[in-house]
Amino acid sequence: MTELIADHSAQRTARTAGLFYLIYIVVFAASTFIQSSPVVEGDAPGTARNIMGHLWLFRIGIMSELISVVFFLLAAWALYVLLKPVNRYLALLFVLVLLGGVAVECLNTLNRFAAQLLLSNDDYLKTFTADQLQSLAMFFLDLGSKGGIITGLLYGVWLFPLGYLVIKSEFLPRTLGVLLICDGVSLLVCFFQAILFPGYEKLTYPLYPVMFIAEFGLALWLLIKGVKMDEIENEIETDNGLREQ
Question: Structural domain boundaries of the chain?
Fold first, then answer.
């Protein structure tokens, strides 16, 4: 009876992780599109007009990014619970690395808030000219995109222990684990490209399908298929045995 409860608990955990991960992917993609749409590269006045013309939409984009981060954390916690029986130390490692990325991303949203505030025409900003405020807003938006490079590094690193645990788990397809590791490599390539070779973003475009397939595939698999019940039972028994020792 205890094993049956453990099996069903693991299945619920897997599907919960998949649901949260899927929500994160969808909401984050929407927030990225909303926040990037008003930005006109190299055109501060045009960008300012676009933001102020769709201010509520821009605010929704910022809010959506923060909400997506919450679901990302919930998904990571569910994955930790699911994969802890395989190796609790590596499971803890990917959670800690992800927390670092989430912290940077949350701080990074302040750059978008700053850009919006600079364009708000509040009284304390009247000492600046309109051109100065628009240039400063553009600076903070650009700084926000550069901050995304840091999150890309941490979000890439967390995929290595996650992918390894998926491969070793035996209750999830090894192909998913391999794809997650490839996803991590792709994000690191994007990180080094952005730092060392800015302006060559097109070189990383072929990597985007790998990232999408890996993370979207993991979310859908967990949500729809869950885990192999026999294998998860063996992992739980092994983990319980290690605790008793």
Answer: 2-239
